[in-house]
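Look over this one:
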Amino acid sequence: MSSDDKQDRWLANPGYVVAQLMKALETAASDANAETRQRADAKAATWRSIIAQMLSGALTPGSRTPVQGTPAWVTLRVAQGGFATGEFMAEGSSLPHETMLAARLRIPVDVDLRARLNAWYLTDPGRAQLSALLASGRYRIDVPEEGALLVVVWLIEQKESAAAAELLAAISPWIDRLRFYPVAPAENATSDGLSVRLETVGALKSRLLGMTVPAAIKAMRETLTVWNPVSDRVAALLHETVNGEPPRLIATTESRPRIEGGWPCQQYPDGWHHRARALLAEIAVLRKEHSLCARPVEPTSNLARLLHVLRVVTTAPERLRGRDVGFARTILAQIAAARGLPGSEREQAIRAEGLTLAKRPSKADLAAVLAARLTTLSEDRGLTDPPEVYLGPVSADEAQRHRMPSGLPLADYFAGVTERAREAPVETLIEAGVIGSAELLAMMVPQLSSHAIAAGAADPRLRRLQAALYEAFRGRRSLLLVNLQSQIQFSELPWVRATAHARAGSKTTRNASRELLERVATLTLTRFPQTIVPNPMVRELDALARAADLDIPMTEELAADIFMGTVTQKFLAAAKRAGELMSGSLYERYYGLSYADIARLGVERSGQNGPMTALSLVAMCRDLAGTSEAGNWSVARNGRIIEQLQIVTTHNLAQLVDGLELRMRLQPAYPGLAARNLDWIIAELARPLPDSQRHARLIRRKTTAYAWRQMVFFLALVDRHALDAALSNLQQRIVDSPDQVRTELLAYLDGVRSSADGPLLPMGDNRRYLGWV
């Protein structure tokens, strides 16, 4: 490894990895929840492995190919922060469908299983099975590599043997390690391109069957069914030893009640000691089988104190102390006051109620009923019927099979759970609150865009395969990249590239992609106006724009902790596109910009053969941020520069509104969107956050400033009459806001109002709402 390579290797700050390891170790050592500690242990093991591989040179964080000797198309397992772990998603232990196939083919399930199965799929019987799967669609692709051999077979059937051979040559070095065959048989896993779901029925069933009865409920059941009856029997035995009236509590004018009645341990009926020893022996056995409840052994508990008296009386009565008898008398009086004397109707009623409570099914018990109702549905799709269809009360037949009362309403427990698997148009899920953020919407879009991007394939088999491949590809986690490298594109996968000629230049693809792009962009802008376009959505919109042959420069949110002081030329293109829409506007004046100057900026090449960069744009943003070129590197300094980059580009808002010609279509919505943004900002700022939560307060400042910026953008798109009305509306909303936010927001709004006709706000004007301050 050269010195330059070593330097690049550490551009991804190793301190982040160490910090994550320390955080995981602390959680594993101190968290009260055993499952949380177990997960933290696993995370710590992952971070240890990453550190070891970084030190050995096997991993190069920040590179497009971070695992030594591994091509970019291999799907990597990626940890938090974009760090590759060195593991491959298509490798790992054998999966159920593989072991089932191995059993049918009488292939041993060992370290060579992948090589043998990949080889079998290239035999005549294996190719025939892949061909049948292509025709039926009864396969699933969870990792992009799992579609490679399906493409090989398709190419062979298209008489493109040379292309098939070239693809096999590309994947052959990995044929003994990775799954290049699909999950089969399976229901058709691709959606219809019209509806989406957050999770499949299969995932929902796994979640339901994975539910467990909480330890607290288990302990409560044990208390009600085992130890409460034991406690009653112990109390009854000791009542037999009382001389005179049973102990009872008498209310007094003092703070503590008075105890009247006889004393225990004064008389012992015939056979009492024998029955007492038998009960103690029974309790010893019960304790071995039922150890969740601590009452029998907790020294300060009433049951433990009464048991202590029984043991002393039956084994060494001479050691019985007056204090022990006094405790026993007090406890018996308290029990009588709480639930009556042993055997009384009151005590029996209370215990019957407790047993009824103990028999009440938990959520985990009811989950088994719901999972059973879903067994006839396709596990690879969502719930196409309304979720309430599956949430009716427990029937008599189900009650008998699952040993629980009938009539219990599943809807009370699982309405939110089943909504996640509901399959419906994306607009419906947004209205229902199932998709509640731009980030969740971005997760759903590949289920739609996969069909739009694959629409150009004339062969329905290839169209279905390409859609499945695209959706699986979008499940890849992004890598941490430095030096202006880009994430791998779908078109770079060898088995996707091999079929590009069958999909290229399709008018069907362009039209479908354009239509979906407008739909998703409109939803993003109007349903989540306070949120900047998240990076997963940026990638999806960019892919759709490319497929639609549209020149829309989409820009990602840059990470302040790895920003190296330069950006690619698309940021300048985005800033110039923003200038075409925002030049001379309220937005330009409020943020102190000069889109005329930006229009004159050019691009520069990074190094001899590096990418084209926009250093002049970064220099302008550095000046706008008030940071010097020679300033020391820091996350805060980078954050201020990045925020100015987002401001000058409008962070994709102008690109979507102008590039998709949405301005006039959305014109009536702009004042309402601005008001919704302000309402969200007020609610966020009014939410109590103690000074000790410094990081949370910084994040809130950033997100509310970004929402304010988007509010100003919407205001900049309305005419003067509508602007005056909108500003008055916003003013009143702030006046009506809580005291702790009113003064600050009024000052920021005054800056917006003065920018409506006035000059640019000067640099450093405290009426400009910024996130990095």
Remarks:
- The first helix runs from residue 3 to 9.
